[in-house]
Amino acid sequence: MTAMADPSALEFDQVTFGYGRLPVLREASLRIAEGEFVAVVGPNGSGKTTLMRLGLGLLQPSHGVVRLFGADVSRFRDRWRLGYVPQRASAATSLPVSVAEVVRTGLAGQLRPGRRGTRRHRERLEHVLDLMGLAAVRRQRLSELSGGQQQRALIARALVTGPRLLVLDEPTTGVDAEARAILRESLEHLVTVEGIAVVYVSHDPEGFAGIADRVVEVRAGRLVRVDPQAPAPTSQSV
Amino acid sequence: MEILQFGFMQRALVAATVIAAVAPLVGAFIVQRGQSLIGDGMGHMAFAGVGLAFLVGLNPLVGALALTAVAAVALARLTRVGVGGDLSLALIFYGGIAAGFFFSSRAGGGQNQVLSFLFGSPLNLGWDEVAAVTALAGAVVVIVIALYPQLVALAFDEAAARVAGVPTQGLVLALTVVVALVVVAGMSSIGLLLISAMMVIPVATAAQVASSYRATLLLASAIGAASAVIGLLVAFYANAPTGAAIVLVALGAYCATALTRLLAGSLQRASS
Fold first, then answer.
1. Rounded Cα gap, residues A125 and A68, in angstroms
2. Helix (H) or strand (E) holding A29
3. CA-based nearest residue to A107, from A85, A142, A87, A80
4. Which site among A105, A121, A151 would you substitute to test the B interface, given the most B Cβ atoms closer than 10 Å to its Cβ?
C-alpha cells in the first residue's frame, strides 16, 4: 500500500544516521500506524533517542527517508499533529513558570506574531489541563509540583494542539509508582479513546507493558522487533 | 523634588528609567536560556562600534548599532556551525574589547567620550538622544510583545518549541538582535559594561518571589525602573557615577530579597 493511500503516522524507510564518522543507526525501517502504541527500548547509547529525534525532524538522516503522516519530515508543515514529551529534566527551569504557562507554550507554533490564542486554543488548554488532572494546580509553579505532576504538565503541553502522534522520551524517569500508574492510565485513554499514535521511548518496560502493540529494540544501531508479551527480546526483523 | 527642576536630570530620569524597565523584559529570556552573559558580549561589540564611529566621524549610536547587529548574526551563525555558545560568545567578547580599544586609540581625542559610553553618563544627554533611546526601547517592547508566546516556548524548551512548529533559528537571531538593541539603547545612560547587569539582576530578584513567568517579567521591569530612579538620586546626592549607582541599587534589591526569604524560611522552620 502506498504512503498516500494509507499514510502511517511515522515511517522510517532505510534510515541511516551517524555523528561524524560514528554510525548510530543503520538502515532502520519502521512504520507506526495511526492509533498504534509502539515502545522503543534499548540500552543507553543504543540509538533510541537518535531514532526519536530523526522522527521529529530534529535531526536529518544521512541516508533514507523519514515520513510524518505521509510527508517527508523536512517538508512536514502540520506541526500541530505532533506532540513531543521530552525527558522531565528539560522541565528544570531557572525562572518561575506556572503550569498553565508551560502547557500554553505548546500552542506557540500555531500562533502568528502579534496574535494571541483564539477561543478554540483556550478551550484546548482547559481540556488538556482537565484531562491530565492539572486544572487545580494550573497557577502553581511547575517546580513546586511532584515529578509525576511535572510529567503530566509536559504531556499536557504536547497534547494541547490535539496531535495525532505523541512521542515520549523516558517519561517515567524519576517518577514515583503512583504517578506511573496515572501516566499509564492517561496513555491508555489517549490510545483507546482518542486514537492517538504513541511512540514510547524507555528502558523501563513497566510503563508500557500491556498497552504497547509492539516493542522495538534498538540494538547496536539496528531495529529488532520484540513481542510485547515476551519476557526477553527475540531477533525478528521489524 | 527640586532636582526635577534641572533639565539634565529630567532627561537622565526618562532615559535611564525607560531602558532599565525594558532591559529585564529581554533579560528574562536570556537568563532562562542560560545566556546571561550575552549582553556583555554585545556590550563589548558595541564598544568597538562606538570606537569605530569616532574614528570615521559617525554618530556613536549608528556605529554601535551596526557592529552589534553584525555580532548578533555572527553569534547565531557560530552557534549553528558548532562553535559552542560559551566559546562563540567569548570570541565576540574579546574581539569587541580589542577592536574597541584599537579604534578609540586611533581616534585620539574621542577616548574620553568612549569611556562615558562604557560606564554611562545620562546627565549629558540631550532630548534628541533621549528620544532615540526611547524609540529603541519602544521597538524592543513591540518585538517582545509580538513574539511573546514563541519566545517563552523557545526559552523553556528549544527542542519542544521546534517540534511544535516555532521557527527557532530565526527566533534565536531575533532575540540576539533585541539584546543588541537594549545594549545600544542603554549605552549612554547606564553604560555598555553595565547595561547587561540590568537585563539579569532585576530578573533574578523578581524570580525569588514571582509565581509565574509573566509575573517575573512585569516585576523585574518594575524593579529595573525603581533601581534607575533610586540610583540616579543616589548618584546625584552622593556625586557618584550614575550607571554604577543604578546597578548597585538593583544588586542591593536582590540581596535584600534573598536575605528576607532566607529569614522568612528560617522563622517558618523554627515555628513548625
1. 25
2. strand A22-32
3. A80
4. A105
Minimal Cβ distance to B212: which of A96, A108, A114: A96
Residue A108, min C-alpha distance to chain B (Å): 5
Domains, in order of start, for chain B: 2-193 (1.10.3470.10)
Model pLDDT for residues B15-30, shown as the tens digit of each residue: 999 999 999 999 999 9
Please count the other Cβ atoms lying within 10 Å of the Cβ belonging to residue A91: 21
Distance from CA of B103 to the nearest CA of A (A): 38
pLDDT in tens, B148-201: 999 999 999 999 999 999 999 999 999 999 999 999 999 989 999 899 999 999
Comparing CA positions, the residue from B30, B152, B200, B157 lying closest to residue A92 is B157
In chain B, which residues have their Cβ closer than 8 Å to the Cβ of A101?
A: 152, 212-214
The secondary element (H helix, E strand) that includes residue A223 is strand A222-226
Of residues B41, B42, B59, the one with CA closest to residue B50: B59
Which ipTM did the prediction report? 0.86
CB A61 within 8 A of CB A16: yes
Selected residues 61-90 of chain A with any CB under 8 Å from a CB in chain B: 77, 79-80, 82, 84, 86, 90
DSSP track, B53-118: HHHHT--HHHHHHHHHHHHHHHHHHHHHTT--HHHHHHHHHHHHHHHHHHHHHHH-TTHHHHHHHH
pLDDT of residue A231: 44
**What's A10-93+162-226's CATH class?**
alpha beta
Nearest Cα of chain A lies from the Cα of B213 at a distance, in angstroms, of 5
| B210 touches A at CB < 8 Å | yes
Asked if B175 and B59 touch (Cβ cutoff 8 Å), the reply is no
- Mean pLDDT of chain B, nearest integer: 91
Tell me if A84 and B159 make a contact (CB, 8 A cut-off). Answer: yes
SS3 content of chain B, % helix, strand, coil (to 5): 85, 0, 15
pLDDT digits (tens, 9 = 90+) for B155-169: 999 999 999 999 999
Q: Is pLDDT above 60 for A237?
A: no
A179: β partners: none
Facing B165 at nearest CB: one of A104, A110, A140: A110
- Say how far apart CA A172 and CA B88 lie, in whole Å: 36
**In the numeric block, which cell numbers belong to residue A228?**
510485547
